[in-house]
């Protein structure tokens, strides 16, 4: 570097070699430094052009802070190797003054690129969910990273600025704490408990000693009491009441039927290693990074994988309800919106796809089906539609391409939407609603719907939302009176309530203990493959905001 100052910490000098490298990026050449591909091409060109091609990382403390932040990325479930960890560690092991001009430029570019990539992935996630799941719309945070880097270097606050772009949500922090605990367990021996007949309370089986030991290993993670007998082998191998109680706690934390029977699913969960649980946590940390800074106060959160709805007010869960979600071939989508109005005693206009796939076979099989369930048939749409006698329709001659009818179910005890629906118009045509099939809420796995979310005890949710929206005229008494009237009544919320349909297969509950759930839609494996893929070489957002650096190559 021509004219390099003797006091590197007190002056900054434009570097002609750096200018040439940056201009090559602008011309479309694939950028690299020290043999390592650079990812944030557009952000790098903007950043260095703004500072007139001056080296940025002349302070030793800034370089060391960046490397420390990089080394800690694993705590967020991200791979430090994605951020030039090896070449940066090698370069920073040497004295800066002993480096050649080209090596200093390599180092500067690698440090800046690492900052941009780390900041981008902490801010928005490494993976763009919409590239791997058409039913997942992310409401991602966006900030221009170049000004953040400039401020970090000016204030010598590299670690603080990266920490500031991490999700501030309590759920993210608590999941990281669980991750830190599990890391300590990864070196424990974890031999699989052998398959066999289901273990039921009162039985004696050699495998029960292994079950007891496994629950002892998991005691700290789940906050459980000691696993009971530990002396006589004849006692250890008995399925006694203390062990049954611990198995039930474990089952509840894993979304299983808490009946105390160690069957196939419970055994599979017991055999899941700490490393496998870490992987689950890492996937769900990534999902947190896809969410906005604020979920809204109050807000409704639906976890499809956990079959649960929560109402959160001032950061506290004030209502918790079981839900029924879409079947695996009609999955409940993931997105955020706002509940804008409620409909009591709703009618149900059956979507066209459901008419052909679900209703038409029933109508053909059972001539009384439509009348028995209160359906009316209409030809056409809107104000021009005309009611049709179902007896005059040749149902066997209809098909998806030739079906000019609407099926509308009247309010009543058989209506598929029950007594109330909660509307947030969206492209997926899903919403929250009641159901006449309330016995299904007793099941541990509840994926029975066609994509919408059925809510247990929805009138209580309605009363809460109307109160939070600032409409005191709609108390429990008026709601009950309206439902009894059987009249269809629409109530607009004076203040729309944010609603988030999410998909968590691992989270930390109110007690800071882990909850793990079955991946009912097989979304985890696709995310794992994307999250662990090597970050591709790509140009990033032209405005300096690093976007989606992890998976642009898969678009």
Low-confidence stretches: 6-10, 536-555
What would the principal axes of the Cα set say about the shape? Answer: globular
Percent helix, as a range, is 25-40%
Structural class: alpha+beta
* Oligomer description: single chain
- In total, how many beta strands? 17
- Percent strand: 5-15%
Largest sheet: 8 strands, mixed, barrel
Q: How is the largest sheet built, in terms of strand order?
A: 3-4-5-14-12-11-6-15
Q: Give me the number of helical elements.
A: 19
Overall radius of gyration: 29 Å
Span of the ends, CA to CA? 40 Å
* Average pLDDT, all residues: 90
Summarize the structure.
With 555 residues, this protein is of the alpha+beta class. 35% of the residues lie in helices and 15% in strands. An eight-stranded mixed β-barrel has the order 3-4-5-14-12-11-6-15. A four-stranded antiparallel beta sheet has the order 7-10-8-9. The protein has a two-stranded antiparallel ribbon with strand order 1-2.
Q: Notable features of this structure?
A:
four-stranded antiparallel sheet, disordered C terminus, eight-stranded mixed barrel, single chain, alpha+beta, 555 residues
Textual characterization of the structure:
The chain is of the alpha+beta class and 555 residues long. The chain is built from 19 helices and 17 strands. The chain has an eight-stranded mixed beta barrel with strand order 3-4-5-14-12-11-6-15. A four-stranded antiparallel beta sheet has the order 7-10-8-9. A two-stranded antiparallel ribbon has the order 1-2. 39% of the residues are buried.
């Amino acid at each position: 570097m021509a004219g390099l100052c003797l006091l590197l910490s007190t002056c900054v000098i434009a570097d002609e070699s750096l200018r040439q490298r940056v201009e090559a990026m602008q011309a479309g050449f694939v950028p690299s430094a020290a043999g390592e591909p650079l990812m944030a091409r557009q952000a790098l060109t903007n950043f260095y052009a703004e500072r007139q091609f001056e080296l940025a990382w002349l302070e030793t403390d800034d370089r060391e802070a960046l490397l420390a932040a990089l080394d800690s990325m694993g705590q967020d479930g991200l791979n430090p190797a994605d951020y030039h960890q090896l070449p940066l560690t090698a370069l920073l092991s040497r004295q800066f003054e002993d480096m050649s001009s080209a090596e200093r430029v390599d180092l500067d570019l690698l440090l800046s690129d690492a900052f941009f990539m780390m900041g981008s992935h902490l801010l928005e996630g490494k993976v763009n969910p919409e590239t791997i799941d058409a039913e997942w719309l992310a409401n991602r945070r966006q900030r221009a990273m170049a000004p953040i880097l400039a401020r970090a270097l000016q204030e010598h606050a590299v670690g603080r600025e990266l920490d500031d772009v991490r999700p501030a949500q309590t759920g993210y922090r608590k999941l990281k704490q669980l991750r830190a605990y599990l890391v300590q367990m990864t070196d424990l021996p974890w031999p699989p408990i052998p398959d066999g007949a289901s273990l039921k309370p009162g039985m004696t089986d050699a495998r029960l000693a292994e079950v007891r030991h496994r629950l002892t290993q998991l005691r700290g993670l789940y906050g459980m009491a000691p696993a009971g007998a530990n002396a006589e082998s004849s006692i250890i191998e008995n399925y006694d009441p203390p062990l049954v109680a611990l198995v039930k706690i474990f089952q509840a934390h894993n979304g299983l039927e808490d009946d105390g029977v160690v069957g196939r699913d419970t055994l599979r969960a017991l055999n899941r290693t700490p490393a496998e649980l870490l992987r689950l946590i890492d996937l769900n940390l990534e999902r947190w990074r896809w969410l906005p800074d604020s979920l809204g106060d109050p807000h409704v959160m639906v976890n499809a994988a956990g079959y649960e709805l929560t109402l959160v007010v001032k950061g506290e869960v004030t209502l918790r309800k079981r839900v029924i979600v879409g079947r695996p071939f009609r999955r409940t989508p993931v997105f955020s919106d706002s509940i804008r109005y409620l409909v009591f005693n709703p009618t149900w206009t059956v979507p066209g796809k459901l008419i052909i796939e679900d209703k038409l076979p029933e109508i053909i099989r059972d001539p009384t089906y439509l009348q028995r369930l209160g359906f009316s048939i209409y030809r056409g749409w809107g104000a021009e539609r005309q009611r049709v006698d179902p007896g005059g329709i040749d149902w066997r001659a209809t098909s998806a391409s030739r079906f000019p009818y609407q099926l509308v179910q009247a309010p009543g005890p058989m209506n598929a939407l029950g007594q109330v629906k909660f509307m947030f118009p969206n492209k997926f045509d899903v919403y929250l609603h009641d159901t006449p099939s309330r016995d299904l809420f007793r099941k541990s796995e509840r994926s029975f719907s066609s994509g919408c979310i059925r809510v247990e005890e929805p009138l209580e949710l309605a009363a809460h939302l109307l109160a939070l929206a600032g409409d005191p005229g709609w108390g429990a008494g008026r709601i009950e009176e309206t439902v009894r009237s059987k009249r269809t009544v629409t109530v607009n919320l004076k203040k729309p309530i944010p609603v988030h349909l999410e998909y968590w297969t691992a989270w930390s509950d109110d007690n800071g203990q882990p909850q793990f759930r079955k991946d009912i839609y097989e979304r985890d494996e696709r995310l794992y493959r994307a999250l662990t893929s090597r970050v591709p070489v790509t140009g990033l957002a032209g405005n300096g905001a690093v976007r989606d650096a992890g998976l642009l190559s898969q678009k």
